[in-house]
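ARCHIVE ENTRY
Sequence with per-residue tokens
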Amino acid sequence: MERITISIDSALALEFDRLIAERGYKNRSEAVRDLVRSHLEAARTVQSPAGHCVANLSYVYNHHERDLAERLTALQHEQHDLTVATLHAHLDHDNCLESVILRGATSAVRAFSDALMAERGVRHGLLNVVAVEVGAGHTHAHEHPHDHPHMHGQDKPAHTHIHLKPKT
């Protein structure tokens, strides 16, 4: 592990120590490592939008907004190849929170997220992107069998799927 030394003014150090305590870090080094990783990841996904990613898109919307829930669902269905799963939570009588897990080409994930967050009535949208290597060293999907307990001795079909390995 490399050792680096940084200097910051007292007020910033005090504020950083408060953040460390709030987030439960054991020491400054752990907090700095997380900050550096986060910043590098953000830069990587901006610099290489041609790559692949996994992402979480979270947003709040007013479910009384005319046809908004249907429009959001339609957008997700139109991009079913990007959408892995959606979590929906009711916040109060008017507002809902959705969190959509996405995977695919970074440019497509960003375009989908931008389109969804631009819908009238969607607010507080945030996209968290993690760059991944497709196939963990392979550039194509491959097939191999997986056990399925519900098949009870029947021939087990091979499934095509892609392995995604975070780049950090």
User: Anything to note?
Assistant: The longest strand covers residues 122-134. The radius of gyration is 21 Å. The chain has two domains: 10-47, 49-168. The longest helix spans residues 28-47.
